[in-house]
Design brief:
Elements: E1 10-11, E2 14-15, H1 20-23, H2 28-36, H3 40-48, E3 62-71, E4 74-83, E5 89-97, E6 108-111, E7 121-124, H4 129-140, E8 143-144, E9 147-151, E10 163-165, E11 172-177, E12 181-186, H5 195-205, E13 214-220, E14 223-230, E15 236-237, H6 238-251, H7 266-287, E16 291-292, H8 295-315, H9 323-334, E17 344-346, E18 357-360, E19 363-366, H10 377-380, E20 384-385, H11 387-404, H12 421-448, H13 458-479, H14 485-495
Antiparallel strand pairs: 1-2, 3-4, 4-5, 5-7, 6-7, 8-9, 9-13, 10-11, 11-12, 12-14, 13-14, 15-18, 16-17, 17-20, 18-19
Helix pairs in contact: 6-11, 7-12, 8-9, 8-13, 9-13, 11-12, 11-13, 13-14
The chain binds adenosine-5'-diphosphate and ligand LMANGFYV.
């Protein structure tokens, strides 16, 4: 029998809590303490194995916030926030049933040892369509206890759509409703305005055709827990599309470079992507402040890049031998202001790469405006030169070309690009030419779409590419060490002065 059928009745020898309303009399933190404390013995080891858990050591968790949605014939859904000793918050969506159906076993977390839910099976609720449906209904009502939906636009959220978890689960979790809505759940919520919610709200207000429309954002006790946006059905991941094209290119006998003239093949896609990025930058420039950086600002930006490099060298020692040359590139950028070269800063995407671009029937949409995951939220919203985004995408063409050299493995790991030195060199050259052509096409599209011509900003672009490659080296060393050779090769190339 569903535990919710017993709602308010004895379960596992203890009285179960009633729904949100009777608990609302308790202050939020006490309610979270009462309800979440007994779950911690099973939650703690589970959290440490999540892909989105970033901690190196699991410190004592502290219950921070909760709302309970459920009862009356349904299992309970807990939308909860716990904090680690260092103050990092994690969002947990927890289901509670007396018995777990086999289809939900992979989502099992454990059995609650004591407290109001003693004996209940605890599981990750994102896997349970019944609970994700209940969450959408609660959000459509705009409030469930302390959980609140801040709507965007006039239309109410459609309910009754069939939910399914999105297979990709990296920094966050996502649920798709009937191929119409996407609920994105921030697993590491932060206080204050959220850069992605702010950006999508502004882009939606402007009817920007290059980004999904925002329907609303979710908040609990001052934290932004997620957002509901338009789902783009049938969209193809830009990274996969690029790698597939690059692979085709490596296996065809034709001349890899068709020369000047209209862009063809993937280069036409890259050009359209450049236009889409420029259009999005244009819309962001209209919605948020745009300033010309002073000579001091530019020098300070360059100094930050040098500090990031120092920190990166400490973590990735292979960067050390390129340090002085990279620092020189950053210095060169740092002097632009003093030389009277204009550098404009505005709200940007902040972590732009092919995996954030979705190919939708002949054109592109950009998603995931969260910025670089390792940067604090407040910093991610600061105005930046747009060429940082351009540099991120240019780096991505290089990544895609490298990935194409590999046999298509389950994780697309970069490895030995071929057999025999001659063949290896020829494939490397062809991959390099592919990346080069698409980088050029992207820049041409960017200029065509109203953005400043990246080709005319070589010092800036080279410095930003180097900064991005340093960031990537740290990211790969931390998360995917087998990919580290890709950004290291770029650092080597950029430091050697062969930027393009
Ligand atoms: N609005 C959308 N419509 C269709 N697919 C989407 C949408 N937003 C994201 N996706 C898919 O989900 C993936 C992960 O989304 P993203 O916002 O990048 O999450 P994360 O921050 O966890 O990386 C994307 O690469 C894309 O494949
Ligand atoms: O998508 P996220 O916001 O989580 O971004 C992080 O992870 C990316 C990898 O998934 C990482 O991107 C790097 O690898 C991509 C290929 O997998 C490549 O397309 C990008 O150009 C490269 O930067 C990103 O840096 C990181 O922030």
């Amino acid at each position: 029998m569903s535990p919710a059928a017993h709602h308010g009745a004895a379960v596992g020898g203890a009285r179960r809590p009633a729904r949100t309303a009777p608990l609302a009399a308790e202050p939020g933190h006490r309610r979270a303490e009462t309800l979440l404390r007994p779950l911690l013995p099973v939650l703690t080891p589970w959290l440490a194995t999540r892909r989105w858990y970033q901690g190196t050591t699991m410190t004592a968790l502290r219950p921070a916030g909760i709302t309970v949605i459920g009862g009356e014939g349904r299992p309970d859904l807990l939308v909860a926030v716990v904090e680690t000793g260092s103050g990092t918050a994690y969002q947990l969506l927890l289901g509670m049933r007396s018995e777990l159906p086999r289809r939900l076993e992979p989502a099992a977390i454990g059995t609650v040892p004591y407290g109001p839910w003693a004996g209940q099976r605890l599981y990750d609720a994102v896997a349970d369509p019944a609970l994700m449906g209940a969450l959408l209904r609660a959000l459509a009502g705009r409030r469930a206890g302390p959980l609140r939906l801040d709507p965007a636009g006039r239309h109410p959220l459609p309910v009754g759509l069939v939910p399914r978890p999105l297979a990709v689960d990296q920094s966050n979790s996502a649920v798709v409703y009937g191929d119409r809505l996407l609920l994105k759940l921030y697993r590491r919520p932060e206080p204050g305005p959220h850069p992605e919610v702010e950006a999508l709200r502004a882009l939606t207000d402007q009817d920007c055709p290059r980004t999904p429309r925002l329907h609303g954002s979710l908040h609990l006790d001052g934290l932004t827990l997620g957002l509901v946006e338009e789902f783009l059905p049938g969209a193809e991941d830009g990274w996969q599309r690029a790698v597939a094209h690059a692979r085709d290119h490596l296996t065809t006998a034709a001349d890899p470079d068709p020369g000047p003239g209209p862009a063809v093949g993937f280069a036409a896609d890259a050009q359209a992507l450049g236009r889409a990025v420029a259009e999005t930058h244009g819309a962001l420039a209209r919605a948020f402040p745009r300033t010309r950086l002073s000579a001091e600002d530019i020098a300070a930006d360059a100094a930050r890049m040098k500090r990031r490099l120092t920190a990166a060298v400490a973590e990735v020692p292979q960067l050390a031998r390129h340090r002085s040359r990279l620092a020189a590139l950053f210095d060169e950028y740092g002097r632009l202001g003093a030389r009277g070269c204009p550098v404009l800063a505005q709200r940007t995407h902040g972590d732009l790469h092919l995996g954030q671009a979705l190919y939708t029937g002949g054109d592109w949409h950009l998603v995931d405006f969260e910025g670089e995951p390792a940067t604090p939220a407040a910093e991610r919203a600061l105005p930046q030169p747009v060429l940082r985004d351009v540099a991120g995408m240019l780096r991505s063409f290089d990544y895609a070309a490298r990935a194409a050299l590999l046999p298509a493995g389950p994780h697309h790991e970069p490895a030995d690009p071929g057999t025999g030195p001659g063949r290896r060199l020829s494939r490397l050259r062809r991959a390099g030419a592919w990346a080069q052509r698409n980088r050029r096409a992207f820049c041409a599209g960017y200029a065509d779409g109203g953005g400043e011509d990246p080709a005319c900003r070589a010092a800036q672009l080279t410095a930003f590419e180097a900064d991005r490659a340093v960031y990537e080296a740290v990211y790969e060393a931390r998360h995917r060490p087998h990919w580290l050779p890709v950004p290291l090769a770029a650092v080597h190339r950029l430091a050697g002065g062969r930027a393009r």
